[in-house]
Amino acid sequence: MKNIFTFIGLGAISMAALFAVTTPQKASDSVEWTKTTHDFGTVKMGPKANAEFNFTNNGAAPLTIKSANPSCGCTASDYSHEPIMPGQKGYVKASYGTKGRPGFFKKTITVTLDNGTTQVLTITGTVTSDAGTSGDEL
Questions:
Q1: What are the tens digits of pLDDT across the range 91-109?
Q2: 106 phi and psi, to 5 degrees?
Q3: What CATH number is given for 26-128 in this structure?
Q4: Share in percent of the chain as helix, strand, coil (round to 5)
């Protein structure tokens, strides 16, 4: 009888230890984006259309953006170049050159992080061809 209670006690301790083990955090869970798409709606041709995408490093280690690659030459990007410490925020900026590009657009920026994850950010909108406006080239 004493052996049965010992066996049950050890089993209970083993089960408690098993459930106490935490699941390791996936790399994709360590980054929380405030948004991954931005719709400009209707914009006038000429000035650049700019958007900013922000994220928080929810991981336990510093995080660095390795690259932020636009899908075409009409879109430019900038991003946080310094390591983002745990709990801190970083950014990716997107700039679409509207000059000479009337109509609907949908462009992406592929962000690659040093933790092995990627995130595709999307900007959309419609450029109107109002005469007399001018803007900067990309």
A1: 999 999 999 999 999 999 9
A2: -145, 115
A3: 2.60.40.10
A4: 15, 45, 40
